[in-house]
Amino acid sequence: MVSSTSRLFSVTHARHTGKEHLNVVFIGHVDAGKSTMGGQILFLSGMVDKRTMEKYEREAKEAGRETWYLSWALDSTPQERAKGKTVEVGRAYFETSARRYTILDAPGHKTFVPSMISGAAQADVALLVISARKGEFETGFERGGQTREHIMLVKTAGVNRVIVVINKMDDPTVEWSKDRYEEIHAKLVPFVRSAGFNPKTDVTFIPVSAYTGQNIKERVDKKLSPWWDGPSLLELLDTMPMPDRKINGPLMMPISEKYNSMGPVVVGKIESGRLKKGDSLVLMPNKTPVEVSAIMDETEDEVEKAASGDNVRIRLRGVDDEDISPGFVLTSPNKPVHAVTQFEAQLAILENRNIICAGYSAVMHVHTLTEEVTLAALLHYFDKKTGRKSKKPPQFAKRGQRIIALIETTAPVCVERFDEYPQLGRFTLRDEGKTIAIGKITKLIDPGDQVPDVGGLSLGGSTNAA
User: Fold this and answer.
1) Domain coordinates of the chain in residue numbers?
2) Rg over CA atoms, the chain
3) Keyword annotations for this protein (predicted)?
4) How far, in Å, CA of 430 to CA of 460, rounded?
5) For a disulfide at 358, which of 1, 208, 321, 459, Cβ 3.0-4.6 Å?
6) Of 397, 395, 408, which is closest to residue 457 (Cα–Cα)?
7) pLDDT tens, 89-116?
8) What is the C-alpha to C-alpha distance for residues 203 and 211, in angstroms, rounded to an integer?
9) In whole angstroms, what is the distance from residue 441 CA to residue 427 CA?
10) Taking the CB of residue 119, how many other CB atoms lie within 10 A of it?
């Protein structure tokens, strides 16, 4: 599979010279204008030239979709273009005078939440795109709308900074109204707080029009919006504090996709450590020894080395393409990532369609991995008033509760304790298309260890019945 970047852009990119690199995921309701904004950023930062943009505009008009033309710079499959909905995680690349960026454009549509999770798992900053258009904000935000679920998932996926981009400020129902901006701001603040973000330090609000380009690169015209004194979106991104990169830690790179191009190529974001061409590494959980035969950056230029925070493609020697799956982790032989079939985790229960008790099965999303898991036992619950752990295990878990559970997988999975490597230690559990719980791994149980004694609660019978 060729990247959308090389397929779409014939622009020659400046080689990056030690610029800081930030991964940005666009999230939000299906029609909030995420792809349009991505397209506009690529155009305004010079990654897509005028001629290419005009070609997209013409094609979109012929397809009867005039305002989609900017998003065609990101949406790369004919299926996505026909629908105007982004399906896979679209990737694109741009740079400013200060930094270089990878855009991960995640689908907003309900059925595509798993792709959204894998996009967010690779990001440093989330741009939550909100439509200010009357009626559209309300639809995305009410119960069942995707805005709520997305912001919760992004926090779980490990993104600690959010820019809430209030888009479509040029819409006839809005006309850059300060009142409308403040109304949306007031409704979102308690919500981002409840998802675990600190509204003062982790979240920034900014008004834009992705379609007209106002307040994206240059600050919005004072004639349109005399009340906005803040930066433009790109100014804000260029001045955000950089995340802490574990450059000196052991190498860990979860694989998000793979393809064959003169040998197997794996794609992913390095979460810890560094690597260089010629390195001998291990592909976990299968313990396959591999060698790095080439490293490509976001623009598919070959580079000699890469470090934590980089999004790269790596050609491997010593393994077959079919023996690699998304969710595997490329790691250093001296301190490989853990591969376990049992771990203890703290879960916050968000929904419970079915009774959550020992024997309950759900789908776990952790970094780039999707795996079916079973709650082998519920070990403790936290008292809401005191925050203390119960001595007795709960019989079942209800919405709003925090519990500790023993979780089992059928095949070994590559995970770490949340305290040590947050990106490999936080996960979501989903069931019947809903996010049921968000979790943090607190203890890894080595294959040699005995399952802890849980007072006969590992209910052999219930597992057989499941």
Assistant:
1) 4-239, 252-331, 339-465
2) 23
3) Cytoplasm, GTP-binding, Nucleotide-binding, Phosphoprotein, Protein biosynthesis, Repeat
4) 23
5) 459
6) 395
7) 456 778 898 888 877 755 544 444 555 5
8) 23
9) 8
10) 30
Q: Which two tokens stand for residue 451?
A: 């399952």
Tokens coding 162:
């959010």
Looking at residue 28, its pLDDT comes to 75
4-239 and 339-465 share one fold = no
Q: Which of 121, 103, 99 is CA-nearest to residue 34? A: 103
The pair of three-digit structure tokens given for residue 449, joined into one six-digit string: 């260890």
With beta carbons less than 8 A apart as the criterion, state whether 225 and 209 touch. Answer: no
What's this model's pTM, rounded to 2 decimal places?
Answer: 0.62
Which is the CATH superfamily of the domain at 4-239? P-loop containing nucleotide triphosphate hydrolases (3.40.50.300)
DSSP designation for 228: -
| Dist. CA 41–CA 419, nearest whole Å | 35
b/e map 1-38, b = 16+ CB within 10 Å: eebbbeebbeeebeebeeeebbbbbbbbbbbbbbbbbb
CATH C-level class of 252-331: mainly beta
Say how far apart CA 111 and CA 113 lie, in whole Å.
Answer: 6
Give the pLDDT confidence score for residue 110 in this predicted structure: 44
**352: nearest Cα among 406, 407, 409, 430:** 430
Cβ-based neighbour number of residue 358 at 10 Å: 25
Q: Is 128 helix (H, G, I), strand (E, B) or coil?
A: strand
434 burial level (CB within 10 Å; 0-12, 13-18, 19+)? middle
Angle between helix axes 178-194 and 146-156 (nearest 10 degrees) is 50
CATH number corresponding to 339-465:
2.40.30.10
Q: Are 69 and 81 contacting, i.e. CB atoms less than 8 angstroms apart?
A: no
